[in-house]
Amino acid sequence: MTESKTLSADAPVPEATAAAPVAEPAAAAPEPVAAEAPAPASAEPSVTATAVGTDTKSVDKSDKSVADSKPAPSAETKSEELWETPGWPLAADHPLRTFHARLPSILESAGHSQIWGVTLSTSTPAEFSTLIILQKFLRSTAGDLETAAANLEKTLKWRKSFGLDGIEDRSGVKDEDAFKGLGYITVVPSLPEPSVKGAETSVNQIVTWNVYGAVSDIKTTFGDLDAFLRWRVDLMERAMARLDLASATTPIPDYPAPEDPHRLLQVHVYSGLSFLRLPPEVKAASKATIELMGAHYPETLSRKYFVGVPRLMGWVFGFVRMFVSRETARKFNVVSWEEQLQPELGEKEYVPQRFGGSGPELAELQAKTKDM
């Protein structure tokens, strides 16, 4: 009997494996291995009679000339009230404008201004791509501006120290043989999402695959923690690049409105692994990856599927639950049998036959969808 179910926030979350990393919940992207306010009206201020002994209720039509003589708000005044960023107008009291006003000091302190293909700009009105990044950090803290600003600064400092966003190889991954066949990035055209881009538009899903069932030697893959993390970050960075946030034109709604359309879908495949125990190397890699993804990749995960996880071994997810938020746990889905995955992803030709689709194996599918 096949089974596919979605875990609730209180349900145990499968993650660790004896031969592979527990899934990394990406709270964005942690994972085991391991109303908008309306723009203020610009109407002219009302005029009342101010002469001694005059009742404001009895002002006659001759006083209308006083109101008519008031100058209309200038274009400059209007721009102060409403940012006309194409596709994303923001009223003067919108929290994103307050966040953006703090950006100069954040960038100066961090000494770094690049993230996920976007160069953060302090120009006003704010650039669309800059708003995308700020909104992700703001939503990840449920609108807590202070925490969001602190988290953004920490992430920019980490990216600089980790060697990301440079001309050379992003993460310094060197030993590809240790991770060969473990990670892929594909695209699956999904059904139209009217709430996101209109009823006539189909939204492509960027999917990252972690095939932990392909791990042949635990010490080779997880023994060097720094090397493993650099490989995992590189996979994540390449997936984020596919979102092309620098050219995004769809705004992210304010928390807690409907979901952010600029996120990744993740699949972790555990088929064929032994779940009898959690080796220390896997435990250390899982914990470090979960923490790193949670801290520096906010609002980057839409859904995560754990494939090939036996029901009786669901207890291993308890390890991950110690490190992820309830909100992240709600995005986890367990698919007991590989062939049950395709309906969850989209069109059959973009899902390997192994997972219920009609497409080729992951390596070929990755090449096929590289330019989508």
Describe this structure in words.
The longest helix is centred in the middle third of the chain and has 19 residues, at 225-243. This protein has helices at residues 64-68, 75-81, 95-101, 103-110, 128-140, 145-162, 194-197, 218-222, 225-243, 280-296, 317-321, 326-329, 342-345, 362-368, and strands at 4-6, 24-25, 30-31, 82-83, 90-91, 114-115, 118-119, 183-192, 202-211, 264-269, 301-307, 332-335. The strands form 4 sheets. Strands 1-12-11-10-9-8 form a 6-stranded mixed β-sheet. A two-stranded antiparallel ribbon has the order 2-3. Strands 4-5 form a two-stranded antiparallel sheet. With 372 residues, it is of the alpha/beta class. Helix content is 33%, strand content 14%. Helix 5 (128-140) crosses helix 6 and helix 9 packs parallel to helix 10 (280-296). Residues 1-79 and 194-201 have low confidence and may be disordered. It has 2 domains: 95-162, no CATH class; 176-369, CRAL-TRIO lipid binding domain (Phosphatidylinositol Transfer Protein Sec14p, 3-Layer(aba) Sandwich), CATH 3.40.525.
- Structural Rg: 25 Å
Strands across the major sheet, in which order?
1-12-11-10-9-8
Please, what is the oligomeric state? single chain
* Helical run tally: 14
The low-confidence runs, each spanning 5 or more residues with pLDDT under 50, are 1-79, 194-201
What CATH architecture label of the largest domain applies? 3-Layer(aba) Sandwich
How many domains would you count in the coordinates? 2
Instruction: Specify the helix fraction band.
Output: 25-40%
Say which CATH homologous superfamily of the largest domain is assigned.
Answer: CRAL-TRIO lipid binding domain
User: What is the straight-line distance between the termini?
Assistant: 36 Å
Sketch the major β-sheet: 6 strands, mixed
Q: What is the CATH top level name of the largest domain?
A: Alpha Beta
Mean pLDDT: 76
Helix-strand sequence: EEEHHEEHHEEHHEHEHHEHEHHEHH
- Fold-level CATH name of the largest domain: Phosphatidylinositol Transfer Protein Sec14p
Shape: globular
Share of β-strand residues:
5-15%
- Classify the secondary structure makeup into a structural class: alpha/beta
Subcellular location: Cytoplasm; Endoplasmic reticulum membrane; Microsome membrane
Cofactor: heme b
GO molecular function: metal ion binding; phosphatidylinositol transfer activity
Family: Belongs to the SFH5 family.
